[in-house]
């Protein structure tokens, strides 16, 4: 799992267009670089979320 400091750097230097954007819910997208290794992550500090991608889990679509 990536450290919070490492994730903060990834988020800071990854443009939105180059971020992974694995859809976790209608509100959170992965902000790590596209094609990254390990868990997906979004958010900062105590609100940070990490999750595994589940291949058989269909994405939640925004309405």
Secondary structure: elements and pairs:
Elements: H1 4-13, E1 40-42, E2 49-51
What can you see in these coordinates?
The structure is a single chain. The chain is α+β, with helices and mostly antiparallel strands. The protein has one domain. 16% of the residues lie in helices and 10% in strands. It has 1 helix and 2 strands. The protein has one helix at residues 4-13, and strands at 40-42, 49-51. A two-stranded antiparallel ribbon has the order 1-2. β1 and β2 (49-51) form a beta hairpin. The protein is globular. The termini are far apart. The model has no long low-confidence stretch (mean pLDDT 83).
What descriptive keywords fit this protein?
alpha+beta; single chain; 16% helix
Summarize the structure.
The chain contains one helix and two strands. It is of the alpha+beta class and 63 residues long. Strand 1 and strand 2 form a beta hairpin.
Measured on Cα atoms, how large is the radius of gyration?
A: 11 Å
Q: Kindly name the structural category.
A: alpha+beta
- What string, H for helix and E for strand, traces the elements in order? HEE
Distance between the termini: 31 Å
Mean pLDDT: 83
């Amino acid at each position: 799992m990536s450290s919070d400091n490492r994730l903060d750097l990834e988020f800071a230097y990854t443009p939105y267009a180059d971020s992974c954007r694995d859809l976790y819910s209608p509100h959170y997208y992965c902000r790590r670089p596209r094609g990254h290794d390990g868990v997906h992550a979004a958010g900062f500090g105590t609100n940070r979320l990490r999750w595994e991608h589940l291949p058989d889990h269909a994405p939640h679509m925004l309405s």
